[in-house]
Amino acid sequence: MDRRKFISSSSVAALALGKGAVGSMATPAANGAKPVLMKLGCQSEPTNDEHLKYLARYGVKNICGYPEIADGRIYATVEELSRMKDLAVKNGIEVDCVGPPVLTSSYIDNEKHPAIMLAKSPERDRDIEQIQMLIRNCAQVGLPSIKYNMSILGVLRTGRTPGRGDAMYSQWKLSDAKPKTPLTIAGHVDGDMFWERITYFLNAVIPVANEYKMRMACHPQDPGVPPEGYQGVNRVLGTVDGLKKFVAIQESEYHGLNFCQGTVSEMLTDPGTQIYDVIRYFGTRKKIFNVHFRNIRGHRNDFVEVYPDEGDVDMVKAIKVYREVEYPYMLMPDHVPLVKNDPNGLQSFAFCYGYIRGLIQSLESV
After folding, report:
1. Which of 26, 33, 85, 336 is the most buried (most CB within 10 A)?
2. Buried (b) or exposed (e) across 2-28, using 16+ Cβ within 10 A?
3. Within a 10 A sphere around the Cβ of 215, how many other Cβ atoms?
4. What is the DSSP letter of 27?
5. So what's the pLDDT on residue 4?
6. b or e along 269-298 (b: 16 or more beta carbons within 10 Å of the residue's beta carbon)?
7. In angstroms, what CA-CA distances link 347 with 54, 84, 340, 343?
């Protein structure tokens, strides 16, 4: 499953009580506490006038944007990026991050640009050159971050299960998982092979990101799988230790994570007690560039994705940890429950956006 399509199919909506203009300063903290720097964000697409007006209607002021790219290119031109940014600004929205049409969370057999993850040269070098061009163009337009995935299997799930009311929750239960084929087009990819592909990419891209001061935010692999792999693939970014190794490959303030709190919780045996120290580890090292602020019920290899207020993670405690580490970027909902009479997920996402904004405002008052 493609994460962007997963989100797009739910047509992310927003409900927020945001204050101030785009780019406003953080709310001063009371009683000498650390300032509240984080922002309600959104990563839904498309970034067109209709959708931007929809987001603005509910107070969303910061987004990950998706420029319209012609000719099947991976990189957007300065003109294409400027057009997207200007349209967002016209609607009172700031583009904090860009999502390219490559290195998504899609299943590799369906990927239009698979060469980087397949280690297929010279195609991967041409694709990397286009990502380097995207970095340069984003910097020229004043767009500070790019998010990406290093995925072969996409988002693995085993179906849906009933939740509260008439909602249906997405579920992963490893014991029930039945891959469509024994292998993907990538064949067997063990840990060493996967790390080679990751390192090859980072060694080519992060120096350019350093030069242009572009934050590169990588999403963890969702979910983690056993060490022997799944469909022949060892998901090395499916454990906390793997993510620690990943951020250490390049010593750079522009190399970090699109920190999906839900995905990281899925890596843990007891997310309700363990996730907070994981946030602290990456947060204190300034390696969190985006947050997917979602909750689960369950643990590694067996979980469901629930509304943020009913999972095993205490989201009030979690947001206090983001404040503690002075996290300054977007908090975004992700993978909301679906309802029959709300097929595009508008009600579910509205609930999540209001919930996040309420938590942020509660921090601003103490």
Report:
1. 336
2. bbbbbbbebbbbbbbebeeeeeeeebe
3. 21
4. B
5. 47
6. eebbebbbebbebbbeeebbbbbbbbbbbb
7. 13, 26, 11, 9
CA 291/CA 173 separation, integer angstroms: 24
pTM for the model: 0.91
| H, E, C per residue of 93-144 | CEEEEECCCCCCCCCHHHCCCCHHHHCCCCHHHHHHHHHHHHHHHHHHHCCC
Which stretches of the chain score pLDDT less than 70? Answer: 1-32
**pLDDT, position 243:** 98
The two beta strands, 159-162 and 145-149, are unpaired
- Whole-number pLDDT of residue 24: 41
**Distance, C-alpha 338 to centroid of its chain:** 19
CA-based nearest residue to 256, from 294, 282, 276, 223: 282
Residue tagged 């709300």 (tokens)? 342
CA atoms within 13 A on the CB side of 114: 15
- Structure tokens belonging to residue 343: 């097929």
pLDDT at 27: 56
Q: Which has the closest alpha carbon to 63: 97, 22, 87, 38?
A: 97
Query: Strand (E) positions, the chain?
Result: 39-40, 62-65, 94-98, 145-149, 159-162, 167-173, 215-219, 255-260, 288-292, 295-299, 302-306, 330-332, 338-339
How do beta strands 215-219 and 145-149 pair? Answer: parallel
pLDDT at 28: 56
Kindly report, residue by residue over 317-329, the tens digit of the pLDDT. Answer: 999 999 999 999 9
**Token pair 């998504």: residue:** 104
Residue 64 pairs with which residues in a beta bridge? 97
Model pLDDT, residue 14: 35
Q: Which two tokens stand for residue 290?
A: 């985006």
- pLDDT score at 197: 98
Token pair 């405002």 is found at 361
